[in-house]
Structures are given as structure tokens and as C-alpha cells.
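Progress note, sequence design subtask.
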């Protein structure tokens, strides 16, 4: 997910996005643990997406 797309969302939307990304990351971790994950690069991508969303969320909350 691009930062520009995340900046268009409001605080509640960003919180929902972070929660959704965390669930996806957990699922990927479980797939890796059970040897079912083919593309391990997706783990790093989701982790970066979570960090990006949390950063923008913190910026929006500090701007209030």
C-alpha cells in the first residue's frame, strides 16, 4: 500500500487498516511455520506496510 493512499484515510480507517495488516501478517507467519509459504518476501512487505500505516496514523493523531 502506498503512503499517498494511506494519507487519504481518516484515523478510524487507518486503525482498521493496521488491524487488517496485522491479521494478514499473522496468517503469513503461520504459513511460514507450517512450510506452506512460497514467497517469503511478503512477510517483509506486510511488516513495512504495517510500519507505514502506524507512522501515518501517529502523524495524524499528533496533528489534532
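Output:
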Amino acid at each position: 500500500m502506498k503512503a499517498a493512499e494511506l494519507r487519504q484515510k481518516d484515523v478510524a480507517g487507518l486503525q482498521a487498516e493496521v488491524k487488517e495488516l496485522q491479521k494478514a501478517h499473522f496468517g503469513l507467519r503461520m504459513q511460514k511455520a507450517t512450510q506452506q509459504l512460497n514467497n517469503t518476501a511478503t512477510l517483509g512487505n506486510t511488516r513495512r506496510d504495517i510500519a507505514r500505516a502506524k507512522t501515518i496514523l501517529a502523524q495524524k493523531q499528533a496533528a489534532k
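Residues 11-33 form the longest helix (23 residues). Work on this subtask will continue into the next period as scheduled.
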